[in-house]
Amino acid sequence: MRYGIFSDVHGNVEALTACIKALRDAGCERFACLGDIVGYGSDPDICVDIVRDVADIVVIGNHDAAVVGRHDASHAHIAAQQAFAYSKKALKDNNIDWLQSLSYVHTDGDICFCHGSPIDAENFDYVFSLDKAASLNERFDTLSKLTFVGHSHLTTSFLVTPRLALQVSSPRFQIRQGSKYVFNVGSVGQPRDRDRRACCVVYDSDASSVTFLRVEYDIDSAAQKIVDAELPPSFAERLFHGV
User: Cα Rg for the chain, rounded, in angstroms?
Assistant: First the structure.
């Protein structure tokens, strides 16, 4: 079985459609979205429609939760709060209801899907550094063999054992027996790892491999639509730089 896994769409329909095509071309049969479908970009409602149609597994992200009243948005910076307000206004009622119904964590056999850390998932903690990954050591016995997370917009990955965590960097991983892994799957709609291409992941359960895909998309159109929607221009500018 090949899973197509993606996260942090952030209202960028150009990047989302390009990633779905790339995952289908890679032979993916089952799709998982790790949250933050809305926020930052100009097309939150269309993106929710697409994810609802395509994804077999969807968990809620902090932006989704903030927009539908399931997460305190007061701590967010002003620009993000503007994006929350825009998304809330743009979403159809049935898509708001659907976002409100999403779970924080989904497990599928020995795979865990969540937006942030699987520990206390409602708080959307990050897992993008060794100390954060090392906090999972004491949960090794209950940790899923593979945990896929979003939230950070980065592509950092970690091998976790009962005693230590190691950061591992590669566009393709062969899963080792006896170890557990946490994969940050990057961002579809707003990458921040200095690669402006959209990012998504293929997990092949038969080959025991995880592969990161980088996908070109029409950044000019996505950025111009952000400007036209009168969202903060920084949301458009950063698309060109992957930051």
Answer: 17
